[in-house]
Amino acid sequence: MDAGVLQCALEDLPHVPTNFIWPKEYLVDSQHQLEAPVVDLAGFLIGDDKATHSAAKLISQACLNHGFFQVINHGVDPRLIRQAHHQIDTFFKLPIQRKFTLHKTPGSMWGYSGAHAHRFSSNLPWKETLSFPYHHNSLDPLVTHYFKSTIGQDFQQAGETFEKYCGAMKQLGMKLTELLAISLGVDRLHYRELFEEGCSIMRCNNYPSCKQPNLTLGTGPHCDPTSITILHQDHVEGLHVFADNKWQTLPPRLDALVINIGDTFTALSNGRYKSCLHRAVVNKYKERKSLAFFLCPKEDKLVRAPDDIVGMDGTRKYPDFTWSDLLLFTQKHYRADQATLPNFVEWLQSSKATN
């Protein structure tokens, strides 16, 4: 059966197909709840120095430990978040034949994917995704154009909603780069130029219900190769983080956005801030959806930790690289996991040695 058609029928299958079954060591259950601080951004966003210092301290503690925190009063209109969830619900309810006309082609990051079956044949995730790029361009709104040209004119409103949603996420992401810089003790605008003109990634995830959830995963254990992830979960629990040598849940909170550090920002902090292993599990009775926005640097900009941090640490822990280098590695040579960054560095250095 075609992987895309199979994905559509997953929730109706009485048994998990073999290529969706994960090894037992990946399926250890979570018995604990992650202590991910809830950071109130209200004071920081209006320039309150005391509130900014307090927020930066909380973020520093979280990022030195496991790289996950939540933000509230983040400035993103909750109505916009609800509208984005509604629009993506509508998309995922389309007939599979129509969704599959948008399927990702080899080498492309954009489009519809049923269980990532276009890339892998085993350890398939129990999910479907829609991924598209975001780059601010007022003359030709990229997301609106993508929805209209690839999904259809009847999805123009969805495109307009996600154009606004991505714009709000990018704006928040840029503010978070300032707060992260403050928390690291460097100039608050140090990282801004790296990200201002970057093309970010928006990924909408749908995890169907599963009759044997103890055999499979919605997303396998991995560290995000990008810089900063801004995630909104719906009301169904499913996000697990591997911290303190055990899997821990991060329950959904509708008024909060979950922020986590990716491999690229680990390099930008000279290894101080952790890019933490995480996964998504599936539910026997309910489907789950999430909206993930990945803030990315401009592809040709050098990813390099600030000299101030390197000076304090005494050594530069990662070679200079570009986001396009790491993106190429994860799309063509390597399936993201907990060792993506060290394996990428090894690949990068061996590639340079042979050129």
Automatic annotation (TrEMBL):
Gene3D superfamilies (alphabetical): B-lactam Antibiotic, Isopenicillin N Synthase, Chain
Catalysed transformations (reactions): gibberellin A12 + 2 2-oxoglutarate + 3 O2 + H(+) = gibberellin A9 + 2 succinate + 3 CO2 + 2 H2O
Pathways per UniProt: Hormone biosynthesis; Plant hormone biosynthesis; gibberellin biosynthesis
Needed co-factor(s): L-ascorbate
Organism for this UniProt entry: Psophocarpus tetragonolobus (Winged bean)
Signal peptide limits: none
Family affiliation: Belongs to the iron/ascorbate-dependent oxidoreductase family. GA20OX subfamily.
InterPro entries according to UniProt: DIOX_N (IPR026992), IPNS-like_FE2OG_OXY (IPR044861), IPNS-like_sf (IPR027443), Iron_ascorbate_oxido_reductase (IPR050231), Oxoglu/Fe-dep_dioxygenase_dom (IPR005123)
Identification of the protein by name: Fe2OG dioxygenase domain-containing protein
SUPFAM superfamilies reported in the protein's UniProt record: Clavaminate synthase-like
Swiss-Prot/TrEMBL keywords: Iron, Metal-binding, Oxidoreductase
Lineage summary: Eukaryota, Viridiplantae, Streptophyta, Embryophyta, Tracheophyta
